[in-house]
């Protein structure tokens, strides 16, 4: 049974960046279709799978950019980077936020000392994400 967990907070790229990157990935599709429409008009070739399948594959990066981020749930983190994953706080071990101006990177490790999450501080509402980690995990005193 798949129970929908309540999301306490979402952490993504700021909306203007997400919109811009998504439009950037979708622009070639639109330009290509407009070019075909203006040059040949509405033809049955526009509905050919040999055209539609590559165009639909070109939508995947736009969807990835739009969904990428971290969701804070009451009992863990849902990380949408590369492959969506869920990490319960019980399986996460520690975290470190490198606040140096040239770095500003958050790293979260699991109990087997593997990186479960690495993200830059450009995410929206980073202080709220750090507060959730402080409440549920112990910080690692690293690097020295």
Structural class: alpha+beta
| CATH architecture label of the largest domain | Roll
CATH topology assignment of the largest domain: PH-domain like
Order of helices and strands: EHHHEEEEEEHE
Fraction in helix: 25-40%
Average pLDDT rating: 84
Describe the largest sheet.
Answer: 4 strands, antiparallel
Tally of strands: 8
Q: Per the principal axes of the C-alpha atoms, what is the gross shape?
A: elongated
Low-confidence stretches: none
CATH class of the largest domain: Mainly Beta
Task: Please work out how many helical segments DSSP would assign.
Answer: 4
Q: Termini distance? A: 45 Å
Q: Give, in spatial order, the strands making up the sheet with the most strands.
A: 1-2-3-4
Strand content: 25-35%
Tell me the Rg in angstroms. Answer: 20 Å
Whole-number count of domains: 2
Short overview:
The protein is α+β, with helices and mostly antiparallel strands and 144 residues long. The protein has four helices and eight strands, in the order βαααββββββαβ. A hairpin with a 6-residue loop joins β5 and β6.
Describe the structure.
It is a single chain. By secondary structure, the chain is an alpha+beta fold. It has two domains: 10-64, no CATH class; 70-139, PH-domain like (Roll). The chain has helices spanning 15-40, 49-57, 60-67, 126-136, and strands spanning 9-11, 69-73, 76-81, 83-88, 92-98, 105-110, 115-120, 138-139. The strands form two sheets. A four-stranded antiparallel sheet has the order 1-2-3-4, with helices on one face. Strand 3 (76-81) and strand 4 (83-88) form a beta hairpin. Helix 1 (15-40) runs antiparallel to helix 3 (60-67). The chain is elongated and about 60 Å long.
